[in-house]
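Let us practice reading a record.
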Amino acid sequence: MNNRNLVRNIKLLLVFFSLCFFGIIVYLTYFSYYKASSIVKDVANPRIRAEEEDVLRGSILDSDGNKIAYSKKTEDGKQKRIYNNGEAFAHILGYNSYVYGKTGMELAYNDILQGKGYGGDILQVIFQGVKSGFGSIERSGYDIYLSIDKDAQDTAYKMLGDDKGAVAAINTKTGEIIAMVSKPSFDPGLIDTKFDEYNSDTNGTPFVNRAAQGYYTPGSVFKIVTAAAALEKNPKVAQEIFNCNGRLEIGTYTLTEQGGAVHGKVTLKDAFRVSCNTTFGQIGIDLGYDALENMAEKFMFNKEIKVNDIYDSINIKSGNIKIDNKNMKALIAQDAIGQHGVTTNPLHMALVTSAIANNGVMMKPYIVKEIKDKNGNVIEKGKSEKLETVVSTETAGLIKEYMVGVVKSGTGTRAKISGITVGGKTGSAENENQVETNSWFTAFAPAEDPQIAVAVIVEEGGVGGKRAAEIAREVIKAYLKK
């Protein structure tokens, strides 16, 4: 072989190995950026289970320190996840399965529960090693303390009974989520054996968190927003007299009252108390769609609502307001009473109500109060943070007064609590696919110094002042009795 051929062959080998090396670099880069995270989280990855079995998974506790999810070692050295009354907390906790993966709090805070983060892997080993003389070291994850009040949560779950629906409650001053229940529910401890049953639409979609991710027509509970828009635009509207003859003719469309009622001459306060559709329909028309939409957006409709936690363990779908034609008065009137293009869910409506109760200030919702290590040391604390100033203190004060009237002598008297002044608003939302209307109720208490805002929906529950108001009443009682 002459020198020329030898040089050529060497060059070919260099090109070949260079291409191989470049190919490996490209593949490793692709793998690291696009595939590694999914493989690490893949439930089929045996390294995940081996790694997790080596660390006793942290507990999830309510605001009083009661364990609602915890792990214990079995005789064969493995772990078992235990859920106390898991169905009541399912849509907060999610589930933890080696077959179907993780969801909810179990997924969002997985690393924390496994003792990762905050330098946890190294510090825990050193600290626990010092305590044990570096003998047998049992590593454990961090514990998560929630803002959830167990009594309010259990009461909401019990009161919903066999109905489909949801309950959400918020601390008006801090934004802490006090309760969040959705039915039908599921048992996180039985995921491996009942996953197909829970994942079936025929069983009412138990995996759907109706409290935070439902899209429901709100009906008359949306009149809180309409009243706020009217008062902010023209405070004198509070003194105006409206005439309700039971019908509002808008071109070829007629807006009517629930049950054919005729309320006669009413002020805005009266109209709110008896939930007068024609008055609020006319107010909506007078406002115009843009003013109504602008106020709704201050209440976070058409916007993204973020949970104020380290990780977004709860995905909140904010309410929407829309209209097919801004100049069509009939549609504006329907939106003004919470029909046509308006949708929301209990967690969002609880936020709306909390803003009114908190003098016009909406706080960011959050659910994690503290994260502690196994020695009780606080690693991180949740915090209160203002989300939006929605309305003036004066407007909030008037609407609070209106809502108190609803419970004292209006459509929400079933929410009365002896010794506690409750403010509320009923709603009965029509749905063309249902036989009965959906029952809504949203409330705050005590009116003199509001501590809790709660919103309830019962699918096909009928008039909101009945079933939903009773549930809200019992949740408020369970929380305030402390």
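A brief commentary: The chain has 17 helices and 23 strands.
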